[in-house]
Amino acid sequence: MQRYAILRKKLSFALIFSKNLTTFTANLINQKFMATTKKITNVGGDGKTPQRTTFVPTAEAKAQAGKFRMYGILLWILAIVAEIGAMVILFKKDPEIDLSTGARVVLIVILLIDLVLLVAGSSFWKKANRFDPASEQNALGFFFQNQLGVVVAVIAFLPVVILAFIKKEYLVGAIAALFMVGGGAASADYHAPSKEQYAQQSNYVKELMGFDHVYWTKSGTKYHLYDDCQYLKGNRTSEIFEGGTIADAYAHNSKIKPDISSLCSACEKRAAKEKGWTDEQLQEVRNKTLSAVQNADETQEEQVEDSVGINK
Prior knowledge:
Elements: H1 2-33, E1 39-42, H2 59-91, H3 101-131, H4 139-166, H5 170-187, H6 195-209, E2 215-216, E3 239-242, H7 246-252, H8 265-275, H9 279-311
Parallel strand pairs: 1-3
Antiparallel strand pairs: 2-3
């Protein structure tokens, strides 16, 4: 009997040890393969804001946008100063006498400086629009806020092009025209952000997660809903940025397009699965959330038109 009692104790001890070992191994695997070990940098709040039909930038975002716009305007002014310098040289030229090689080189260098200042200013301006985007409701204002760099490119080079051809400096005129086209192309915003896009995607993330809180990497083109997403585990980056909102992701990474397609599909499906949604239900929620902002904008426009009609 005593031998059986000792055997039972040993068996019980072995079972307890095996259970503890299994639990320890499971926790180790979970830490290794499920949770991220990368550095997470927080750049925003908790994202716990109510759903809105329009995006309202924070005071900090407005201040940052104002700073970048000031830098952009200052660089554009310097670009126009360079343009004036080039025009002064051309004004003094006799159309019947060719410029010396040295003077022509100086002109081209001035135009190159003009181009660099233009593109640098446009870069700051586009970055400012990520912090404080325009509204699509005002089509003209939306265009000029997002494509102002293209307008400045024309202002900074077209007078030089015209004057150069008047003064029969065709090489300088051709180079100025080339810089105008290239500078305009570099200054254009091909994925212009809008308040409506920010509001739509913020509301959709809130539908999926309950709050607007996302993750992204420095060079990635997607934002994520989970810090342990499979696409964040790669060796391409050692740091994950954690924001409070969609707006933080767009403001701090210009490679992320302000479009719903920038949401990581794996994160989206995972969030839907946790809620028990089918693919059809997920698509329905997406369409409903994205159209809600558009419908609100149309209603607001109708109210404004009705108000104008009443005043008349």
